[in-house]
Amino acid sequence: MNTPPHAPLLFPVHRGEIQLGGVSIRQLAERLNTPFYAYDAQLSRTRVAELRAALPPTVQLHYAIKANPFPPLLRHVASLVDGCDIASSGELDKALAAGFQPSSISFAGPAKRDEELGAALRARITLNVESLGELERLERLGQTYGIRPHVALRINPDFELKGAGMRMGGGAKPFGIDAEQAPTILNKIKQMEIEFQGLHIFSGSQSLNAEAIMQAHSATLALAENLLSSSGLHARHINIGGGLGIPYFPGEQRLNLTPIGAHLHDLLQHHAAWLGQTRVIMELGRYLVGEAGVYVTRIVERKTSRGETFLLCDGGMHQHLALSGNLGQVIRKNYPVYIAAQADAPATELVNIHGPLCTPLDVLGHKIALPPAEVGDLLVVTQSGAYGLSASPVHFLSHPPAMEILV
Ligand SMILES: *Cc1c(COP(=O)(O)O)cnc(C)c1O
Q1: 277 phi/psi in degrees, rounded to 5
Q2: What is the 64 CA–ligand 1 centroid distance (Å)?
Q3: Nearest to 240 by CA among 274, 275, 199
Q4: What would the pLDDT profile of 259-296 be if each residue is shown by its tens digit?
Q5: Among candidates 400, 407, 401, 355, which has minimal Cα distance to 381?
Q6: Could you please report the per-residue DSSP string of 190-231?
Q7: Where are the chain's structural domains?
Q8: 399 SS3 class
Q9: What's the pLDDT score for residue 160?
Q10: Which residues on adjacent β-strands are paired with residue 406?
Q11: What are the CA-CA distances from residue 17 to residues 199, 209, 291, 298, 342 (Å)?
């Protein structure tokens, strides 16, 4: 049991029971069927407030909807942030229904279909264009509809966010226009029937390394300055991406926002002359909602196999693919798992936790130290508010869908 600890539990514990939004997980489980996801509205509000306090006041916050599009949560986040980033016309419908203003919505994605571009044009949102072909298609569609497209160029930077869980920039990528090709395309834009909005430079995601994030911010603003000054185009906004991670695995710790905010402050001062009124946007998904969500599953069976203990649960990878390690992890690591009613009891046994699916991939925990768990107990997986249900193969094995609740 000598694995490094997970980051501390963020939810209060009352008489051993984990509380979320003022109720215990057990009380929530009496109202909903297991498995379910519960999201703590207050915790997301706190994260946004902490960001606002740490970042320069002019920096705008956008929410990347793909992290969690649950409509009640989306309405809540819409009331907290300045805009959102969508990646499909389905997300466009959800963003508009949640109350985001069209002028605050931007649409990224490497393979946007004509129908999606058309829907975006009619809704008057900004399109983050990812290739020359897409730019030309968009201009033609704009002429057909009689609407001038609002276009930002997504750049595939010539650097990456070091240590990021997911690298989205640097090297050959389906995303964005290579920084080397951008000057030619920016020149073309001047002759096109479009409204140029600015640049979108997203270099990576899920970083817990403040130093690497600061380096990426410096490189991003330097690249933006370079591209804009050589083209002579004026940008209304520059989206500098996000990348702020949350601690999922043993030994990982929460990011300290203070140095990141102070560094961005200095950077904006340094670039103030050319930035002028240009808005700087950060877009975040998991940082805003990831820690606010838990996944709750009930133990259906307990058994031993060749000396190891197995807890077999009603929840699994069909509802939480990332927990099973199959959403992009190279080596599977354990998420934090608690027994809902014994959150502060000492861990006395090592258990393997599995879901109901007939595949060895359906792992919820491998050799996790827990207090003694029994059939009927509720297990709580934290750090589950982002890339949970909507990022999972929910039809696999035809189990009923998980419920979701915002508390
Ligand atoms: C997925 C995505 C994000 C959000 O990433 P997080 O790690 O959830 O913050 C932001 N911007 C773009 C372009 C994305 O594709």
Answers
A1: -90, 5
A2: 6
A3: 199
A4: 999 999 999 999 999 999 999 999 999 999 999 999 99
A5: 355
A6: HTSSSEEEEEEE--EE-B--HHHHHHHHHHHHHHHHHHHHHH
A7: 13-39+291-406, 108-284
A8: coil
A9: 86
A10: 39
A11: 47, 33, 18, 15, 6
CA-CA-CA-CA torsion sign (82, 88, 94, 97): positive
Q: Counting atoms of ligand 1 from 1, which one is nearest the CA of 245?
A: 7
Helix 114-123 × helix 132-145 angle, to 10° = 60
Does domain 13-39+291-406 match CATH 2.30.30.30? no
- Determine contact, residues 158/170, Cβ cutoff 8 Å: yes
Find out whether 11 and 42 touch, Cβ atoms under 8 Å. no
Report pLDDT for 162: 79
Q: Determine contact, residues 212/161, Cβ cutoff 8 Å.
A: yes
Type and span of the H or E element at 50: helix 41-54
What is d(CA 370, CA 50) in angstroms, rounded to the nearest whole number? Answer: 32
Nearest to 234 by CA among 191, 197, 282: 197
CATH no. of 108-284:
3.20.20.10
Pairing mode, if any, of strands 378-381 and 293-305? antiparallel
146: left (phi > 0), else alpha (psi -120 to 50), else beta?
Answer: left
Tell me how far the alpha carbon of residue 73 lies from the centroid of ligand 1, in angstroms. Answer: 17
Question: Quick one: pLDDT band at residue 171, thresholds 50, 70, 90?
Answer: confident
CA of 354 to the centre of ligand 1 (A): 29
Question: In sequence order, which residues have a C-beta less than 8 Å from that of residue 300 and are 6 or more positions away?
Answer: 312, 313, 314, 356, 375
DSSP letter for 75, please. H
Q: Is the pLDDT of residue 358 over 80?
A: yes
183 pLDDT band, cuts 50/70/90, is very high
- The SS3 of residue 13 is strand
Residues with CB under 6 A from ligand 1: 64, 66-67, 85, 108, 202, 205-206, 241-242, 283-287, 386
The residue whose CA is least distant from atom 8 of ligand 1 is 285
